[in-house]
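Lecture notes, unit on protein representations.

Consider one protein chain, 535 amino acids long.
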Amino acid sequence: MKKRIWASLDDYLPPSSESQLVGRSFANYNFFRALLTYAHFDEYHFFLQNRSHKKLFEEKHGPFLKTVGADTRIKLFYRTEMPKTVQQYDYTVFHQGDHIRYFNSLCHFRNQFGSFPVTAFIHSLSYPSLMFKHQEMLFGGVTSGDAIICSSSSGKNVLLRYFEQLSHRLNLSPPPVTLEIIPFGLGGDAFDGLNREQCRKQLGLASHEVIALCFGRFSEYDKMDMFPLLQAFQKIYRKGSPWRLILAGAPHSPDYVRMLELWVQALGIAGAVTIKTRVPESDKIALYRAANFFVSPSDNPQETFGLSLLEAMAAALPLIVSDFDGYRDLATPDIAKRIPTSWGDLDVFKPTRIGPLLDEALLHRYLAQSISVDIGELAASMQEFFLQPGLCEEMGKAARKRFDEHYDYRVVIDRLETFWLKLKETFSPEQIKDSGNPLFPDFFQAFSHYVTKILSLKAEVKRTEFAEDLLKIGGNYPLFTDMDQIVDRANVQRIILLTAQPKNIEEVINSIGDEPWKTHYQILWMLKHGLVEIC
């Protein structure tokens, strides 16, 4: 039986302290841990940039890999080893943590050297700079045997519309890539074994209050504006009511946090609103378990899925969310109340106007500030949950059940694995027609006039006196960092021995027997450093 081998160019390192609680790095890191825990591949190959990159991978992932018994199935390679490695192994799939970095370039590479499907996740889709990467796909590379895995139906529709726009503007066919909907997942175990009373005691919260939690980045330009949420709460709150609204998460925009604090004071709800920033992981889980329901009126086009909603469902919380983007896939009527949203078709931000001239953060602020969440409906739904904690309990149980059935990583990894195996089974190299990535420069054609001459393979080289002296003393010529990926010291010595008499470059390449491109490169490197000379 053939080995099943999963491979990637990504490192899936744990997110930095600044992005630990939210974002793409959080999703990819959790995916990596779930993959190595629940999937059934025989080996996992990671192609990293350099020695430091390998060391960092081993340092950050080593303890976890041993814990789940996956350390013996991991193999680390340099990117420069890929031409040889993809011909040595029959890969099941190459998967990327996003469809932007390297996805299409990896498809072009596969088209030249290998025979395997390439897949990738989507994350935020709204940044205009990403259109250049989507454009790449119209010029070839991806095939129908490759797939972009969309976390939501809304995300899939955005990609379809992007490809439609580009196809119309460039008069090219849309890329044949498969768009498959498989959601992100989460491990629900972390939310088990903690009861509400314990968590409230840990956080210093009153046991008698009904608590609404909103968790996410504090950033109005790339997450959501919490001002409408505060206005909705102010509409229903009466002094002395045992209700509390907690806003928690990562302070992506400190000025925005300060504005929220001032707005809370101005609305007269300071006694019932708690703002928590820089929340440690232990307190994050406790916050979810301490709450009665979760509220998230997302209003920003950068949102595609909603990982915080998964966390709330895992913590058995019902949802009050905006009727927006990928939230629709998660927030079904049995576990959530969806609040209507509205927008307008603004000419000023279209491709022919000022949109392309704006900084992406400013553009997102302008866009998000033109999207409305119905404050009256939001207030009414919050009031219903505040007044009926029993309803919260009932819907919360349904939320956890839905999480276990659809979003627990045991289920999601099984879906992904089944999909990858199906792609591999049906992948056909015959569908590949590729002459290389047209958007990556041919340096040797573009810059050939910079040098005096381009050496042909028939050019003869001979070792220098310096090389002979180096050979006598058995010394090694110093190499810059990571040059040892291409320059093999043993081969350098062999080339010195071979070129005692003039030999053309092609003869040397054939005599060494290593990958031809590497030997060719080593000869050019030796010429640069005075170890061989042109005859």
